[in-house]
Amino acid sequence: MSRTSLALAALLATALVGCPRGPATKKPPEPCKQLGQQCEFSPGKLGACSYKTDCNGGSDCLYCQSQH
Fold first, then answer.
1. Residue 4: inside a domain, yes or no?
2. Per-residue pLDDT of the chain (68 residues; tens, 9 = 90+)
3. How many distinct structural domains can be found in the chain?
4. Is there a domain that residue 48 lies in?
5. DSSP the chain
């Protein structure tokens, strides 16, 4: 192969592979629905759904507790 052919092949391979894409768009974390459910405490940090101790039984009794 000539140098021109090699350069063209390298350029074509680079164009086909392209640059890596940025991070995928993440959907917002789902609110807690049951005790022990896995949740996202903060971006990149996992948590587990727990009950609030001072809750009166409303729909907001569950919250995401950090696991670290």
1. no
2. 576 766 656 655 555 566 666 666 767 778 899 999 999 998 889 999 999 988 887 768 999 999 87
3. 1
4. yes
5. --HHHHHHHHHHHHHHH-PPP-PPPPPPPPPP-STT-EEEEETTEEEEEEE-TT--SSTT-EEEEE--
